[in-house]
Design a protein that fits this description.
The chain is α/β, with parallel strands linked by helices. The chain is 43% helix and 17% strand. It has a single domain, classed as NADP-dependent oxidoreductase domain (TIM Barrel), CATH 3.20.20.100. It has an eight-stranded parallel beta barrel with strand order 3-4-5-6-7-8-9-10, surrounded by four helices. Strands 1-2 form a two-stranded antiparallel sheet. The chain binds NADP nicotinamide-adenine-dinucleotide phosphate (NAP).
Length: 304
Amino acid sequence: MNNREFGQSGIKLSPITFGSMRLDPNRIELEAAVELLTYLYDSGVNTFHSSHEYETDSFFCQVMQQFRARHPGSEIVHIAKIGAPHFDEDKFNSAKLVTLIENRLQQLDTEQIDLVQWLVRHQPNDDQHRLPILAECQAELGETWAQLQKQGKVGALASFPYSVPFAEAVLQFPTCSGLVTYLNLLELEMTPFLEQMEHAGQGYVAIRPLGGGLITTKTLVQKNENTTNDADKLEAMLTALEIPVADLTKFAVQFPLLHPAVASVMVSVTSINHAAEIIAAVDGIKSDRTAFNNILKQAEYAPI
Ligand SMILES: NC(=O)c1ccc[n+]([C@@H]2O[C@H](COP(=O)([O-])OP(=O)(O)OC[C@H]3O[C@@H](n4cnc5c(N)ncnc54)[C@H](OP(=O)(O)O)[C@@H]3O)[C@@H](O)[C@H]2O)c1
């Protein structure tokens, strides 16, 4: 598995990022979870996404600690989700950002967060409030970030923008190296930014390539009333592209990685079987802008 640079940030990610949100101790025991991480790592997946906000986070940190104890010297790349300001705040506070990052370093028992996925939140969480917060914090964020980088505590900063107007604004920030947000066959709203991001040297991590489990072969095989609309759309897409239904999971994982701006797809798996399928899907994958654009065209026009 060839690692890919996140834009021109110097941070290299495995094409698959393991997303920890669903690593639930009610579904998988500690020993099996350590085995899963070991399998992923040995297969070339060294990039891990986590958040102190996930209910499963203390379990993930425990699994990571066990993994590292058994694999000293392993090179892990961390992507961490950090919201500053949070929903109950109304402006950016750099001391709060620093505290959240320092806490995260401790929780993950690591020296550096390679990619900080930064969220600007507000209650209500709309652009009318968030865009002015963003505009106001540019200089303060820039200074704080430079300091954190100098101390070796962070690598690059990327945005989870929540909206297209916010993405447009934050991508103008010199501090922002790219986006870590949704991109899959059913969530395409950020695709218009990909070309400009590539030219600007910014990177993209595509969250939930399987649409949270919806964009899989199983969904089409076991179609029901809750999934009919999406399943029909996916079926129309596969027919137009002459892709067998049996290949949908593989195709869904590959799609974002066809764009040169996309460094990694962020996916959750809770079993070695699922992990093996995802890893096989990216085997030998290379960027292919023409193929990406062709699929995008079909995905955009597939009937809803
Ligand atoms: N705002 C944010 O920053 C944000 C939001 C959402 C998600 N995330 C991150 O992104 C990660 C991925 O998101 P997600 O879990 O919602 O979406 P996803 O990765 O697209 O889908 C995960 C689902 O697909 C299933 N799956 C995995 N491999 C499969 C296979 N080979 N065949 C059939 N099903 C398969 C998983 O089942 P099993 O669990 O049974 O393997 C799970 O139910 C999260 O873990 C989280 O770290 C971040």
